[in-house]
Design goal:
Layout lengths: L9 H18 L15 E8 L4 E9 L5 E4 L10 E4 L4 E6 L2 E7 L9 E7 L7 E2 L7 E5 L9 E8 L15 E9 L5 E9 H9 L1
Parallel strand pairs: 1-9
Antiparallel strand pairs: 1-2, 2-3, 2-8, 3-4, 4-5, 5-6, 7-10, 10-12, 11-12
Length: 207
């Protein structure tokens, strides 16, 4: 950009914000929690953005040893920490800023039938941490530009064997599913899908 065309002090303000962001990344790596060996019986699934040189982590699903399912959206050092959890006894909640926004009692995992929707997760962008594929059971990769903050999302569902996610949970207005993976390492299985606006889907398929 032409610095002469900017309002006074703009360059200094931008530089200050850049240095603050750089220090925050150095002090807090949101991907650090998902590196290293998995516990016996634990499974981790990642959604990562492949920019051609690195994989950028943008969402993680973790199945614990007893089957609990946690959906995390790794972000910076702020207290935001958005995530959802479905526990073995059927307790389900969405949490943000350490506050439970949704609290429900659903079916226990040892008597699971049909399907349960865990949410449609927006607000991604370019990813916030380096993804180490060795730390995950499987990684679903997508190109940059698909998960735009307001124009793309990740859908997560639990499904019993032989069952598909509920149709009404897949019909996000204005979006189409671009890529989907089903993981049956535990019962119920996990279905992870990336949905985007039609123009992003068309551009990806034409590339």
């Amino acid at each position: 950009m032409d610095a002469a065309a900017l309002p006074p002090d703009t360059e200094a303000i931008w530089r200050e914000q850049y240095e603050l962001a750089k220090r925050a990344v150095k002090e807090h790596d949101p991907g650090a929690l998902f590196r290293g060996p998995r516990r016996e019986g634990e499974h981790r699934y990642a959604v990562a953005i492949d920019d051609g040189s690195k994989l950028w982590l943008t969402l993680v699903i973790r199945r614990s040893e007893r089957g609990d399912c946690y959906v995390s959206v790794p972000r910076d050092s702020t207290p935001w920490n958005p995530h959802a959890s479905y526990h073995a006894d059927g307790a389900f909640h969405h949490k943000s800023y350490d506050m439970k926004l949704t609290r429900e009692k659903r079916q226990p995992l040892d008597k699971f039938t049909g399907t349960e929707h865990l949410g449609s997760f927006f607000g991604h962008g370019a990813g916030t941490a380096i993804c180490d594929p060795a730390a995950f059971t499987s990684v679903l990769t997508i190109p940059p530009g698909i998960l735009e903050p307001r124009h793309g999302c990740v859908l997560v569902d639990l499904v019993a064997p032989g069952t598909a996610p509920a149709v009404h949970h897949r019909q996000v207005p204005g979006l189409r599913i671009l890529k989907e993976e089903t993981y049956h390492h535990r019962t119920p299985g996990v279905v992870v899908a990336v949905a985007a606006q039609d123009r992003f889907v068309a551009a990806w398929r034409d590339s």
